[in-house]
Write a structure and sequence with these properties.
Blueprint lengths: L8 E4 L3 H12 L4 E5 L14 E2 L8 H19 L11 E5 L2 H16 L5 E3 L4 H4 L9 E5 L3 E2 L2 H14 L3 E4 L3 E6 L5 E6 L2 E4 L3 E3 L5 H7 L7 E10 L9 E4 L1 H7 L6 E8 L5 E7 L10 H14 L8 E11 L6 E4 L6 E5 L5 H17 L55
Parallel strand pairs: 1-2, 1-12, 2-8, 4-14, 12-19
Antiparallel strand pairs: 3-7, 4-6, 5-6, 9-10, 10-11, 13-16, 13-17, 14-15, 15-16, 18-19
Helix pairs in contact: 1-5, 1-9, 2-9
């Protein structure tokens, strides 16, 4: 075993959140390494649909984070190659009856006050937006800011861009320990191939966030929440927006461990239609659930009857990193100086990745964040006060001397394969 040269930051996790952290760290001039026990996007990111949504978030901290992220994804779409399949397609949320429509309308009004662009859609206007929608719906709301990206490719190109900006990439190296000094502060991580020394470690390990936190001696109650996605055969362009039922929002915010399904349907540039969404807390059970798949297929065909004759080529599933209050853990852990978290986003990690990274890197550099990070405090689940009676103060690490930001790199970065 040997020790790598000291770094400013070690990012643990090469999903889209870790990739974004590495990218923004490297672009800000920090010496950064990203390390993962598997490949890029080998976990939840690789099983995601690629949703970049503001429509499913009520007014509050997560919506503020989503709005910041939406603007950052726009910037990234101008820098990263088109292979990431960024589409500003907009979202259409539909209601089956008047009661559901009233709830949706009230939610949209609050979102509009918070800065979300919304447009009510009357029943007779739905066919112009989505010609293949089932008749008889009570109406809906159009969200022009909703977008989509191919998540695995987005993560891969963020990592590549971080590497081009000077980041070191260590794949296939599982972290076995978080190294701490005599005062308890972080001093790096240990892998099977050696130590990576840095005064800041970012926990971007998704559903394994609690395990990485435990290596540092703290608790973070991240749990897996399983979800399935169906992929149809390539079809002609049928579905123009991301379309989902209003009940989806309630499912996202539910604390229930039981199975919940609500139709979420969207097309992709390569032709297949993606169908979701299910949620259930069953640990890391990878069993293929035929009842869940059947419910998703039936709900999608009810929303878009044209899909009733489409073939489903495959079904896959992943695990969303769930935290009890449905907010991610972002920023410094006040219990362990030098430990930063960027996990627990549940199903919104792809959409929230750039803003999460921006908050984390601002904290590491000791800079003022773009939005208030307090609601995302990683140690909010451990409110034990220090002997003085007050919660421990926030800690951050800043390099000994400011480093200039690096200019954008607009070179083509080998887009690679496309995904169905």
């Amino acid at each position: 075993m040997f020790t790598r040269q000291p770094l400013d930051v070690v990012v643990v996790g090469a999903g889209v959140v870790g990739a974004a952290c590495a990218y923004y760290a490297a672009r800000s001039g920090l010496a950064v390494a990203v390390v993962d026990g598997g490949p890029v996007a080998g976990g939840t990111t690789g099983a995601g649909e690629g949703n970049l949504l503001v429509s499913d978030k009520p007014p509050g901290p997560e919506l503020n984070l989503a709005l910041l992220s939406a603007s950052l994804w726009h910037e990234l779409s101008q820098v990263l190659p088109s292979a990431i399949e960024f589409e500003q397609k907009g979202g259409l949320v539909v209601a089956a009856d008047e009661s559901s429509l009233a709830t949706l309308t009230a939610t949209a009004a609050g979102q509009a006050e918070a800065g979300v662009r919304t447009s009510p859609v009357a029943p007779h206007e739905l066919p112009a937006l989505e010609p293949h929608l089932a008749p008889g719906l009570a109406g809906g709301v159009l969200y022009p800011q909703d977008a989509q990206v191919q998540p695995a490719l987005a993560a891969a190109h963020l990592v590549r861009a971080a590497r081009d900006a000077g980041a070191a990439v260590h794949l296939g190296e599982a972290v076995t320990a978080v190294l701490r000094g005599p005062t308890g502060a972080v001093r790096g991580v240990r892998t099977g191939r050696g130590d990576l020394l840095a005064p800041a470690v970012v926990n971007a390990t998704g559903v394994r966030g609690g395990e990485l936190a435990a290596l540092a001696g703290v608790e973070l109650p991240v749990l897996p929440r399983r979800g399935f996605v169906l992929v149809t055969e390539p079809l002609p362009p049928l579905i123009r927006h991301k379309v989902y039922a209003a009940e989806y929002v309630a499912d996202v915010s539910s604390a229930s461990a039981a199975l919940q399904t609500s139709p979420v349907v969207e097309g992709t540039p390569s032709g297949p239609v993606l169908i979701g969404a299910s949620r259930e807390r069953v640990g890391f059970d990878r069993t293929l659930s035929v009842p869940v798949i059947s419910r998703l297929a039936a709900a999608a065909a009810a929303l878009f009857p044209v899909l009733g004759t489409a073939r489903v080529l495959r079904a896959y599933h992943g695990f969303r990193p769930y935290l009890p209050d449905h907010l991610p853990a972002i920023g410094p852990d006040r219990r362990v100086p030098g430990l930063f978290h960027a996990c627990g986003h549940e199903g919104a990690g792809i959409g929230l990745a750039p803003a999460t990274a921006a908050l984390v890197i601002a904290a590491i550099r000791g800079e003022t964040p773009a939005i208030d990070p307090e609601p995302f405090r990683p140690d909010r689940f451990d409110m034990t006060p220090e002997p003085g009676g007050e919660p421990p103060p926030a800690t951050s690490y800043a390099p000994s001397s400011p480093l200039p930001a690096r200019p954008p790199d607009h070179r083509d970065r080998n887009p690679g394969d496309t995904y169905p």
